[in-house]
């Protein structure tokens, strides 16, 4: 039993040595790509529901549909991409995938939820949780640390 666990741990250590972590600037560009793509989805929906007035109004939230389209829909889309493809389209540009930090295997639904909640935590203090990626050995942001995930380059 102990020998098997040692072999597994050695296999994980060996796999980690051959991993290429996706760094800060590629992840920044990935976020920009993802944000633009989400806008291509949400803005036409909001225009169809509220008309041009939506974009000229000073009210922060126009109604229940505004909340659903701007908050619930993006969360659903992002988590869908994480579960289905292990990456968002922006990360796919760099052949990046989000995996469990320990096993380098697929992340669970719980990890996806924790990672998304971690986005909020990473954002609140001046985006320090995202800036952390630039200085971390495994290029993990706070959201990655919370969910125990890493973003790596997928093997061809």
From TrEMBL:
Membrane-traversing stretches: 36-56, 68-87, 116-135
Pfam families: RDD
One Gene Ontology cellular component annotation held by this UniProt entry: plasma membrane
Keyword Transferase recorded: no
Keywords, ordered alphabetically: Cell membrane, Membrane, Transmembrane, Transmembrane helix
Localization terms from the record: Cell membrane
Domain RDD: 23-147
Chief place of localization: membrane
UniProt entry tagged with the keyword tRNA-binding: no
Recorded topology in the membrane: Multi-pass membrane protein
Protein name per the record: RDD family protein
Phylogenetic classification of the source organism: Bacteria, Pseudomonadati, Pseudomonadota, Gammaproteobacteria, Alteromonadales
């Amino acid at each position: 039993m102990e020998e098997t666990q040692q072999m597994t741990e050695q296999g994980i250590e060996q796999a980690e040595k051959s991993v290429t972590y996706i760094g800060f600037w590629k992840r920044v560009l990935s976020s920009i790509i993802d944000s633009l793509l989400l806008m291509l989805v949400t803005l036409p929906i909001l225009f169809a529901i509220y008309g041009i007035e939506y974009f000229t109004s000073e009210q922060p939230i126009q109604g229940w549909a505004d909340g659903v389209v701007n908050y619930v829909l993006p969360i659903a889309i992002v988590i869908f991409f994480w579960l289905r493809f292990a990456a968002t389209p922006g990360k796919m540009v760099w052949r990046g995938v989000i995996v469990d930090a320990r096993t380098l295997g697929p992340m669970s639904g719980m990890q996806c939820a924790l990672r998304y909640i971690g986005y909020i935590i990473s954002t609140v203090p001046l985006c320090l949780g995202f800036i952390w990626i630039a200085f971390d050995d495994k290029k993990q942001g706070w959201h990655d640390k919370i969910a125990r995930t890493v973003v790596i380059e997928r093997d061809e």
